[in-house]
Amino acid sequence: QRINQQQGVKYIPSGQVVDFMVNADVDLTGKGLRVAVIDTGMSENSSQWRHSLPERDKVMGFTANDWHGHGTHIGTLIAGSPIDSEYGILSGMAPDVELVSIKAYNYAGLSNTGRLLEAMELAIEYDCDIINISSGGQQNDRVDNLLETQLIANHSDRFWVCAAGNS
After folding, report:
1. What digits encode the pLDDT tens for the residues 31-54?
2. Which residue in 161, 102, 97 sits closest to 131, CA to CA?
């Protein structure tokens, strides 16, 4: 397997990832699990919701529509129904999970700590087993003192997936 290196960062070319995911036999489908996606919302118009339209909610008065596209992208990676593409059959990693879309980001993909905390608490109220937050922000050296970290620690019965984003 060839891994390219640029400026000290190792990455696997996306073509290899697509080759790995296309037509993969998967025994585990996520059936019986609720997954919260805290992001920019999810569009109802995606062809990958043929099997199950995600439950949708919002914080801070945002509309539930996804004008940015990131939340829909993340939701289909997690639970999109199989679709035929130029690469073959593509499917979300766990197409049988029950998705809960919680919009906490605006049309530009921006949010703040208060909105994220409210969205995290909403995911707990919805009794989500897995809570996904794909977010970026400024580095804070005292991460153990952050309210988000304390909330996650207080709800360790959930599986938290937190991406660091581009910042």
Report:
1. 999 999 998 888 777 666 665 656
2. 161
Beta-bridged to residue 102, according to DSSP, are 38, 57
Residue 26 CA to residue 125 CA, distance in Å, equals 30
8 Å CB contact between 138 and 110: no
142 has which bridge partners? none
Q: pTM of the prediction?
A: 0.74
With helix as H, strand as E and coil as C, how does the chain read? CCCEEECCEEECCHHHHHHHHCCCCCCCCCCCCEEEEEECCCCCCCHHHCCCCCEEEECCCCCCCCCCCHHHHHHHHHHCCCEEECCEEECCCCCCCEEEEEECCCCCCCCCHHHHHHHHHHHHHCCCCEEEEECCCCCCCCHHHCHHHHHHHHCCCCEEEEECCCC
| ∠ Cα 47 52 56 (to 5°) | 95
Q: Tokens 């539930």 map to which residue?
A: 64
Nearest C-alpha neighbor of 120 from the set 110, 133, 109: 133
